[in-house]
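Repro:
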Amino acid sequence: MTSRAVTLGIMLFTAISPVLGSVQARPLDPMLVAWYGFESVQEGKIADLSGHGLDLSVVGTARLAEGKVGRAAELTGQGYLETPDHPLLAFTDDLTLECWVWLPPEGSGGRLIDKSTPGQNSAYRLDLHPANFLRCAASTTVAAPAPLAPGQWSHVVATVASYQQTTIYVNGELLAQGPGPWGKVSLTDLPLRLGADNQGGALFRGRLDEVRLYCRVLSREEIAARYAGR
């Protein structure tokens, strides 16, 4: 276990978390690094529900709208969300990126979760390229063979395991897999952004809800359970 994993492990606590419209008390995963539920904006900030203080700032235009669970962040291509670089976001071995995504009827491309250098496969990102098609990049790149359906919510998860494989799941089902990084995932000192790349381009249009980042790989069973709201 890495030193970061040990640090995260002692930060386990119990929180009230919304799951598909219900309210349940549950212990947080000790490897959960960041969690954004988008239930409110306070002084231009969206709280990190993991307890690690990685709150998001609104850059440009974004608003709260009806979500999969309560409210969601709605982005119209005029803004994005970001939190500064932090040691907890320096995933070098295993990671999972998870969120619910709603696409407008015309669909969208752009970044969903991004800490990479534009034009490179550094750090990690989950995006839509070409429009509506999921892609995960973390040293290596894996792309989904089928597009997300516009006009409805999709649960999307990407996992990356160094020296093993990268996977993409949609609505609890494995959609794509390929080789993982042959070595450590590279690091950047760039902020984590939702809805844009680190040059302010590749803007996403749609809604994001229940965004979670883990410093471990969720199992297929865990991903199916997350999709089912358990």
